[in-house]
Amino acid sequence: MIQWWQILLLTLYSFYQICDELTIVSSAGSPVFAGFISGLVMGDVQTGLLIGGSLQLMVLGVGTFGGASRIDATSGAVLATAFSVAQGIDPEQAVVTIAVPVAALLTYLDILGRMSTTFFAHRVDAAIERFDYKGIELNYLLGAIPWGLSRALPVFLALWLGGGFVENLVATIDNYKWFANGLVLAGRMLPGLGFAILLHTLPAKRYFHYLAMGFGLTAMLTVLYGNISSLGGAVGSLVGAVNETLGADAAIAFTNNFKGLSMIGISIIGVFLAVLHYQNARRTAVAAPVSNVESGEIEDDEF
Any transmembrane segments, and where (predicted)? Predict the structure, then answer.
């Protein structure tokens, strides 16, 4: 059962997250952050992070260039986490049965929010002509109201009225295990879809050598550090057996952990390649003719 104060907090967060995404951009409007906040409010942070992380991977390469609308994975993470914790739904099922449909449905409300702000945009234009600076500030702030309501209102209604619907949905899914298993499989495919969209968006053809080298290094370092991790686990088990023999007074401490070395190695290599690319781009810009530099041409890898 979702308490009234949980509904209030999640509604207020839903109002704020879209405003943050459009102005401050502190990542508070990201799906993984929404999962964390929702899990914190509902008392199960792990479930929130599982749902939020899955949706974050799904929209990893999706942008809103040119005013285009995208699925609202953040609101989907809020509702999926809330109902998953309150109704005991499996997180993977919550992603595909609640988060994805809600995220797709709220695309229409995103368009409505964009259309509503044009009213305040025209009022800002009129205030500019009158040199009314207070009017500009006021209408700019008022423009945040339709944006916030486009997320807060559906989240509030879903949390307030959706408990019985979710229970019926879960009961129906339990009666059709094959369907539930299919949904779980589809949910596991979503992160791969997100990476595919990301690769399609990035200029992978131009920098294919970097992509290939990254995959190669990841494969090699994973094997290398995987073996080191196994060695560390074996040594840890050996030390544990020795400690049981020696007793608490002469126990040997072994707290090293090798599991994070793989990502550390990849991060170091990534920083090196980023610096190398920056230096090459800087040298190219200095050596380029003045006409090309001043033309303001934007290449496809600069979007």
Answer: 140-166, 178-200, 207-228, 260-278
Contacts of 7 (CB under 8 A, 6+ apart): 156, 159, 160
Question: Distance between CA atoms of 195 and 240, rounded to whole angstroms?
Answer: 41
pLDDT at res. 297: 44
- For residue 170, the one-letter residue type is V
Mean pLDDT of 259-278: 67
Strands (E), the chain: none
Other Cβ atoms within 10 Å of 117 Cβ, number:
20
The total number of residues shown for the chain amounts to 303
What's the mean pLDDT in 285-297?
A: 53
299 torsion bin: left (phi>0), alpha (psi -120 to 50), beta (else) = beta
- Buried b vs exposed e over 11-39: b needs ≥16 C-beta within 10 Å? bebbbbbbbbbeeeeeebbbbbbbbbbbb
| DSSP summary character for residue 252 | P
